[in-house]
From TrEMBL:
GO CC, one annotated term: cytoplasm
Gene Ontology BP annotations: amino acid biosynthetic process; aromatic amino acid family biosynthetic process; chorismate biosynthetic process
Task performed by this protein: Catalyzes the transfer of the enolpyruvyl moiety of phosphoenolpyruvate (PEP) to the 5-hydroxyl of shikimate-3-phosphate (S3P) to produce enolpyruvyl shikimate-3-phosphate and inorganic phosphate.
EC number: 2.5.1.19
Domain of life: Bacteria
Protein name per Swiss-Prot or TrEMBL: 3-phosphoshikimate 1-carboxyvinyltransferase
Matches recorded under HAMAP family: EPSP_synth
Assembly notes: Monomer.
One of the record's GO molecular function terms: 3-phosphoshikimate 1-carboxyvinyltransferase activity
Top-level taxonomy: Bacteria, Pseudomonadati, Bacteroidota, Flavobacteriia, Flavobacteriales
Residue ranges constituting the Enolpyruvate transferase domain according to the UniProt record: 61-399
Principal location listed in the UniProt entry: cytoplasm
Sequence positions that bind phosphoenolpyruvate: K23, G70, R99, Q147, R323, R366, K390
Keywords: Amino-acid biosynthesis, Aromatic amino acid biosynthesis, Coiled coil, Cytoplasm, Transferase
Length: 409
């Protein structure tokens, strides 16, 4: 489904939107609930990624297919590897078969797991024979993906001796590790993260609890971009968010404060308002802690006509697509002067936008959602627009509520 989208022009936005639960929190809690059934989850994400995670955990089948879901792939690898007596083939989309998983597989093997590669070494699909993992200490590189670390931390309390992780190198996407530990803490598991070492104690059982998933801050980023690109005074209310978020992308108020958007909390309602222009015509940001915001920010800066230098982007090459190349290709179509390296992106300030371009999305939900706000500036076609369901199935309906039209073409 390709959509021609057109946003309201010269018109203030005024709308309340309820965003689905965070897919990152949801997939962690789903795994923890499989290990400790007394956990009740509220505001679970309605995303494809949470659905495949739920199905994967519930399935007794020989093969589990997690499609495009990186967290499901990594978390279920650790889960199945530690389920004694269970044998399963874990597979995914064509792209998933190119996304590396060797660091996690090696760490699990060091702990005693039995895992084989079925196609290309270092990548899914995997054949996993579940074992009781009695070792409790392992060292792994931490610069490639935090998901390997979260996967190990999530099964850690269920291991007979708990787990100590020694992390090597610069730790990437740290807030996601803190989210994992934060959820474990909330459920009553003892954890400690000091320097490059994380310790999680064994928990034979956990008290019954109700966990409410906060809505997804990465999804909120598209509304920040929309407000930044609309006339002064535009305002969107977003639910259900909290000031003490576990999500690293809750840094949005700080980041978009520099781009003319003010944020204000009223209980669980986050109100964002375009209060003025960006602080400067060149925006700099290191996104090593928030890699999922890169596409939103690059497209938003382009729409604002300001330049930007985004750094800390080395993980973007192994996500749903090579996001650096995808951004370069698609922003260039719109007239941007942009350069990328394998870990950074540089955009020159420019007020020119080439109209009616077809934006490819590369099986990447964030390409579709990051470019959509540019519909406030020009008509454009978003190809394969259904990709948004990976994290935010209601995205196009929510955009319609803001006055956007989208026509299937
Ligand atoms: O743990 C998580 O829920 C995630 C961690 C991040 O991945 P990396 O650690 O691979 O950067 C992030 O990009 C992804 O969307 C979700
Ligand atoms: C990178 C992402 O997801 P995952 O790695 O879980 O597929 C994302 O949602 O931006």
């Amino acid at each position: 489904m390709d959509l021609q989208i057109s946003g309201p022009r010269q018109q203030r936005l005024q709308q309340d939107i309820t965003i689905t639960g965070s897919k990152s929190e949801s997939n962690r809690l789903l795994l923890l609930r499989a290990l400790y059934p007394g956990i009740e989850i509220r505001n679970l994400s309605n995303s494809d990624d949470a659905r495949v995670m739920q199905n994967g955990l519930a399935s007794g089948a020989d093969t589990v297919d997690i499609h495009h879901a990186g967290t499901a792939m990594r978390f279920l690898t650790a889960y199945f590897a530690s389920r004694e007596g269970r044998e399963v083939t874990l597979t995914g989309s064509q792209r998933m078969k190119e996304r590396p998983i060797e660091i996690l597989v090696e760490a699990l093997r060091d702990l005693g797991a039995e895992i084989d590669y079925l196609e290309n070494p270092g990548c899914p699909p995997l054949r996993i024979r579940g074992k009781r993992l009695e070792k409790s200490e392992v060292t792994l590189p931490a610069h490639v993906s935090s998901q390997y670390i979260s996967a190990l931390l999530l099964i850690a309390p269920s291991l007979p001796n708990g787990l100590t992780l020694h992390l090597e190198g610069t730790i990437t996407s740290v807030p996601y590790i803190r989210m994992t530990l934060g959820l474990l803490d909330r459920l009553g598991v003892k954890t400690e993260f000091r320097d490059q070492t994380i310790r999680v104690e064994h928990a034979a059982s956990l008290p019954e609890s109700i966990c409410t998933v906060e809505s997804d801050w990465s999804s909120a980023s598209y509304f920040y971009s929309l407000v930044a690109l609309s006339p002064t005074g535009s305002q969107i209310g977003l639910r259900s968010f909290r000031g003490d978020s576990l999500q690293g992308d809750s840094v949005l108020p700080e980041i978009f404060g520099q781009l003319g958007v003010e944020s204000h909390f009223e209980d669980d309602r986050l109100e964002i308002t375009r209060s003025g222009d960006p602080d400067s015509d060149f925006f700099r940001c290191d996104l090593i802690r928030s890699p999922d915001l890169a596409q939103t920010l690059a497209a938003c800066c382009f729409g604002l006509g300001i330049g930007c230098e985004l750094t800390g982007l080395h993980t973007l090459k192994i996500k749903e697509t090579d996001r650096l190349v995808a951004l370069e290709n698609e922003l260039k179509k719109l007239g941007a002067e942009i350069r990328v390296t394998d870990k950074s992106l540089h955009l020159e300030p420019s007020r020119r936008i080439v109209a009616m371009q077809r934006i490819r999305t590369y099986n990447d939900h964030r390409m579709a959602m990051a470019f959509a706000p540019l519909g406030l500036k020009t008509d454009l076609v978003i190809e394969d627009a259904g990709v948004v369901s990976k994290s935010y199935p209601d995205f196009w309906e929510d955009l319609e509520a803001l006055g956007f039209s989208h026509l299937e073409v």
